Protein backbone atom coordinates (compact mmCIF):
# COMPACT_ATOMS: atom_id res chain seq x y z
CA UNK A 1 0.00 0.00 0.00
CA UNK A 2 1.53 3.29 -1.06
CA UNK A 3 1.84 6.27 1.22
CA UNK A 4 1.40 8.59 -1.76
CA UNK A 5 -2.05 10.10 -1.98
CA UNK A 6 -3.67 11.73 -4.95
CA UNK A 7 -4.70 14.72 -2.82
CA UNK A 8 -1.05 15.52 -2.02
CA UNK A 9 0.65 18.39 -3.86
CA UNK A 10 3.03 17.31 -6.61
CA UNK A 11 5.86 19.40 -5.10
CA UNK A 12 5.40 17.66 -1.75
CA UNK A 13 5.43 14.19 -3.34
CA UNK A 14 8.74 15.07 -4.95
CA UNK A 15 10.23 16.66 -1.84
CA UNK A 16 9.77 13.40 0.08
CA UNK A 17 11.65 11.39 -2.56
CA UNK A 18 13.46 13.32 -5.31
CA UNK A 19 13.87 10.16 -7.46
CA UNK A 20 10.13 10.41 -8.22
CA UNK A 21 10.99 13.24 -10.63
CA UNK A 22 11.61 10.64 -13.36
CA UNK A 23 7.93 9.72 -13.36
CA UNK A 24 6.88 13.36 -13.45
CA UNK A 25 9.28 14.12 -16.28
CA UNK A 26 8.11 11.10 -18.26
CA UNK A 27 4.52 12.39 -18.19
CA UNK A 28 5.41 16.07 -18.40
CA UNK A 29 3.89 16.77 -14.98
CA UNK A 30 5.10 20.19 -13.87
CA UNK A 31 6.57 19.81 -10.37
CA UNK A 32 8.18 23.22 -10.02
CA UNK A 33 5.90 26.17 -10.87
CA UNK A 34 2.90 23.81 -10.79
CA UNK A 35 4.15 22.03 -7.65
CA UNK A 36 1.28 23.36 -5.51
CA UNK A 37 -1.29 21.39 -7.55
CA UNK A 38 -2.46 18.05 -6.17
CA UNK A 39 -1.47 14.93 -8.11
CA UNK A 40 -5.13 14.50 -8.98
CA UNK A 41 -5.38 18.01 -10.47
CA UNK A 42 -2.10 17.68 -12.36
CA UNK A 43 -3.24 14.36 -13.89
CA UNK A 44 -6.67 15.73 -14.82
CA UNK A 45 -5.02 18.65 -16.61
CA UNK A 46 -2.98 16.29 -18.78
CA UNK A 47 -5.75 13.68 -19.15
CA UNK A 48 -3.62 11.11 -17.32
CA UNK A 49 -4.99 8.22 -15.31
CA UNK A 50 -4.11 9.07 -11.72
CA UNK A 51 -4.16 5.39 -10.65
CA UNK A 52 -1.56 4.57 -13.29
CA UNK A 53 0.68 7.44 -12.17
CA UNK A 54 0.34 6.39 -8.52
CA UNK A 55 1.36 2.88 -9.54
CA UNK A 56 4.44 4.17 -11.40
CA UNK A 57 5.41 6.30 -8.41
CA UNK A 58 5.20 3.21 -6.20
CA UNK A 59 7.38 1.25 -8.65
CA UNK A 60 9.88 4.11 -8.62
CA UNK A 61 9.98 4.00 -4.80
CA UNK A 62 10.62 0.25 -4.87
CA UNK A 63 13.41 0.70 -7.42
CA UNK A 64 15.04 3.42 -5.35
CA UNK A 65 14.54 1.72 -2.01
CA UNK A 66 17.55 2.07 0.25
CA UNK A 67 19.02 4.87 -1.81
CA UNK A 68 20.10 7.89 0.19
CA UNK A 69 18.01 10.84 -0.94
CA UNK A 70 18.14 14.29 0.55
CA UNK A 71 14.83 15.59 1.81
CA UNK A 72 15.55 19.32 1.71
CA UNK A 73 12.46 20.09 3.77
CA UNK A 74 14.43 18.74 6.75
CA UNK A 75 17.37 21.12 6.20
CA UNK A 76 17.71 24.51 7.88
CA UNK A 77 17.00 27.65 5.84
CA UNK A 78 20.71 28.47 5.69
CA UNK A 79 21.66 24.98 4.56
CA UNK A 80 19.07 25.06 1.79
CA UNK A 81 20.05 28.57 0.65
CA UNK A 82 23.75 27.60 0.57
CA UNK A 83 22.91 24.45 -1.35
CA UNK A 84 20.84 26.36 -3.95
CA UNK A 85 23.62 28.89 -4.50
CA UNK A 86 26.43 26.33 -4.60
CA UNK A 87 24.55 23.94 -6.88
CA UNK A 88 22.01 25.70 -9.08
CA UNK A 89 23.26 29.30 -9.18
CA UNK A 90 26.79 28.05 -9.68
CA UNK A 91 25.57 25.82 -12.52
CA UNK A 92 23.95 28.80 -14.27
CA UNK A 93 27.08 30.92 -13.84
CA UNK A 94 29.20 28.18 -15.38
CA UNK A 95 26.83 26.95 -18.06
CA UNK A 96 25.11 30.05 -19.47
CA UNK A 97 28.23 31.54 -21.15
CA UNK A 98 28.99 28.17 -22.79
CA UNK A 99 25.38 27.75 -23.93
CA UNK A 100 25.24 31.34 -25.26
CA UNK A 101 28.22 30.61 -27.50
CA UNK A 102 26.64 27.34 -28.70
CA UNK A 103 23.22 28.88 -29.43
CA UNK A 104 24.81 31.75 -31.38
CA UNK A 105 27.10 29.46 -33.33
CA UNK A 106 24.33 27.03 -34.30
CA UNK A 107 22.02 29.87 -35.40
CA UNK A 108 24.81 31.31 -37.50
CA UNK A 109 25.68 28.02 -39.20
CA UNK A 110 22.24 26.37 -39.49
CA UNK A 111 19.84 29.34 -39.37
CA UNK A 112 19.23 29.36 -43.12
CA UNK A 113 18.01 25.75 -43.14
CA UNK A 114 16.37 26.08 -39.71
CA UNK A 115 14.96 29.60 -39.28
CA UNK A 116 13.40 28.55 -35.94
CA UNK A 117 16.95 28.76 -34.56
CA UNK A 118 16.70 32.56 -34.67
CA UNK A 119 13.55 32.35 -32.57
CA UNK A 120 15.42 30.07 -30.18
CA UNK A 121 18.28 32.55 -30.01
CA UNK A 122 15.84 35.36 -29.07
CA UNK A 123 14.10 33.31 -26.36
CA UNK A 124 17.43 32.10 -24.99
CA UNK A 125 18.89 35.62 -24.80
CA UNK A 126 15.78 36.92 -23.00
CA UNK A 127 15.96 34.01 -20.55
CA UNK A 128 19.68 34.61 -19.97
CA UNK A 129 19.22 38.29 -19.12
CA UNK A 130 16.25 37.65 -16.84
CA UNK A 131 17.76 34.72 -14.95
CA UNK A 132 20.96 36.66 -14.34
CA UNK A 133 19.04 39.56 -12.79
CA UNK A 134 16.82 37.13 -10.86
CA UNK A 135 19.79 35.26 -9.42
CA UNK A 136 21.33 38.56 -8.28
CA UNK A 137 18.12 39.62 -6.51
CA UNK A 138 18.04 36.31 -4.65
CA UNK A 139 21.71 36.41 -3.70
CA UNK A 140 21.80 40.07 -2.72
CA UNK A 141 18.39 40.57 -1.13
CA UNK A 142 16.22 37.55 -0.45
CA UNK A 143 18.85 34.99 0.57
CA UNK A 144 20.79 37.17 3.05
CA UNK A 145 17.50 38.05 4.70
CA UNK A 146 16.45 34.40 4.71
CA UNK A 147 19.63 33.57 6.62
CA UNK A 148 18.91 36.31 9.13
CA UNK A 149 15.52 34.73 9.71
CA UNK A 150 17.12 31.34 10.35
CA UNK A 151 17.22 30.84 14.10
CA UNK A 152 16.09 34.44 14.83
CA UNK A 153 14.23 34.98 18.08
CA UNK A 154 12.46 38.13 16.95
CA UNK A 155 11.42 39.32 13.52
CA UNK A 156 14.29 41.15 11.79
CA UNK A 157 13.18 44.36 10.06
CA UNK A 158 13.15 44.12 6.32
CA UNK A 159 12.93 47.13 4.01
CA UNK A 160 10.47 45.44 1.61
CA UNK A 161 7.95 44.84 4.41
CA UNK A 162 6.83 41.21 4.51
CA UNK A 163 8.95 38.58 2.78
CA UNK A 164 5.82 37.71 0.87
CA UNK A 165 6.54 40.68 -1.43
CA UNK A 166 9.93 39.60 -2.83
CA UNK A 167 8.76 35.96 -2.81
CA UNK A 168 5.77 36.85 -4.97
CA UNK A 169 8.11 38.61 -7.39
CA UNK A 170 10.52 35.64 -7.48
CA UNK A 171 7.65 33.22 -8.17
CA UNK A 172 6.41 35.42 -10.99
CA UNK A 173 9.89 35.39 -12.50
CA UNK A 174 10.03 31.60 -12.11
CA UNK A 175 6.82 31.36 -14.16
CA UNK A 176 8.46 33.42 -16.90
CA UNK A 177 11.59 31.28 -16.81
CA UNK A 178 9.44 28.14 -17.03
CA UNK A 179 7.57 29.56 -20.02
CA UNK A 180 10.85 30.42 -21.81
CA UNK A 181 12.17 26.90 -21.20
CA UNK A 182 8.92 25.43 -22.54
CA UNK A 183 9.27 27.60 -25.64
CA UNK A 184 12.85 26.37 -26.16
CA UNK A 185 11.62 22.77 -25.92
CA UNK A 186 8.93 23.53 -28.49
CA UNK A 187 11.30 25.32 -30.91
CA UNK A 188 13.76 22.42 -30.85
CA UNK A 189 11.03 19.82 -31.26
CA UNK A 190 11.67 18.36 -27.78
CA UNK A 191 15.44 18.79 -28.19
CA UNK A 192 15.48 16.47 -31.21
CA UNK A 193 18.54 16.46 -33.45
CA UNK A 194 17.66 17.24 -37.12
CA UNK A 195 19.06 14.98 -39.84
CA UNK A 196 21.44 17.71 -41.03
CA UNK A 197 22.67 18.66 -37.52
CA UNK A 198 26.33 18.62 -36.52
CA UNK A 199 28.15 17.95 -33.25
CA UNK A 200 27.79 21.58 -32.14
CA UNK A 201 24.04 21.27 -32.74
CA UNK A 202 24.00 18.12 -30.64
CA UNK A 203 25.97 19.78 -27.86
CA UNK A 204 23.54 22.72 -27.86
CA UNK A 205 20.46 20.49 -27.64
CA UNK A 206 22.02 18.40 -24.91
CA UNK A 207 22.97 21.54 -22.96
CA UNK A 208 19.50 23.08 -23.30
CA UNK A 209 17.82 19.91 -22.11
CA UNK A 210 20.12 19.77 -19.10
CA UNK A 211 19.37 23.44 -18.40
CA UNK A 212 15.65 22.66 -18.37
CA UNK A 213 16.13 19.80 -15.88
CA UNK A 214 18.39 21.83 -13.60
CA UNK A 215 15.97 24.76 -13.65
CA UNK A 216 13.07 22.46 -12.74
CA UNK A 217 14.96 21.29 -9.64
CA UNK A 218 16.09 24.79 -8.81
CA UNK A 219 12.57 26.25 -8.99
CA UNK A 220 11.12 23.25 -7.14
CA UNK A 221 13.49 23.77 -4.19
CA UNK A 222 12.69 27.48 -4.03
CA UNK A 223 8.93 27.46 -4.72
CA UNK A 224 7.98 24.30 -2.87
CA UNK A 225 10.46 24.13 -0.01
CA UNK A 226 12.33 27.36 0.70
CA UNK A 227 9.58 29.93 0.15
CA UNK A 228 6.85 28.17 2.18
CA UNK A 229 9.41 27.69 5.01
CA UNK A 230 10.32 31.38 4.93
CA UNK A 231 6.68 32.44 5.07
CA UNK A 232 5.91 30.03 7.93
CA UNK A 233 9.00 31.22 9.87
CA UNK A 234 8.12 34.87 9.34
CA UNK A 235 4.52 34.28 10.44
CA UNK A 236 5.63 32.39 13.56
CA UNK A 237 8.04 35.19 14.56
CA UNK A 238 5.38 37.86 13.89
CA UNK A 239 2.90 35.97 16.10
CA UNK A 240 5.44 36.07 18.98
CA UNK A 241 6.01 39.84 18.76
FE1 LIG B 1 17.56 30.65 -7.41
FE1 LIG C 1 14.64 31.71 -8.15
What is the overall number of helices? Answer: 8
Instruction: Report the biggest beta sheet as strand number plus sense, adding barrel if it closes.
Output: none
| Total strand segments | 0
Rg of Cα set: 20 Å
Order of helices and strands: HHHHHHHH
Task: Give the distance, in angstroms, between the N- and C-terminal Cα atoms.
Answer: 44 Å
SS-derived structural category: mainly alpha
| Uncertain runs | none
Strand proportion, as a percent range, falls in under 5%
Describe the overall structure.
The protein is mostly helical and 241 residues long. It folds into two domains: 10-63, no CATH class; 73-239, no CATH class. The chain is 69% helix and 0% strand. The chain is built from eight helices and no strands. Helix 5 (77-110) runs antiparallel to helix 8. The longest helix is centred in the last third of the chain and has 41 residues, at 199-239. The chain is globular. It starts with 9 loop residues before the first helix and ends with a helix. The structure holds fe (ii) ion (2 copies). Residues 84, 88-89, 135, 138, 218, 222 line the site of one fe (ii) ion.
Amino acid sequence: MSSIRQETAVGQILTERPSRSRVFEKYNIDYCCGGHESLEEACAKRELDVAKILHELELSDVENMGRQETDWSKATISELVDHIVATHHEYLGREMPRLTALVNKVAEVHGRQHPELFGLQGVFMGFNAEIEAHKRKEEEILFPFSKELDGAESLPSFHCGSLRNPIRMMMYEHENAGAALGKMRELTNDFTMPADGCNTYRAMLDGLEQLETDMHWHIHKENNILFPTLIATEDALAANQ
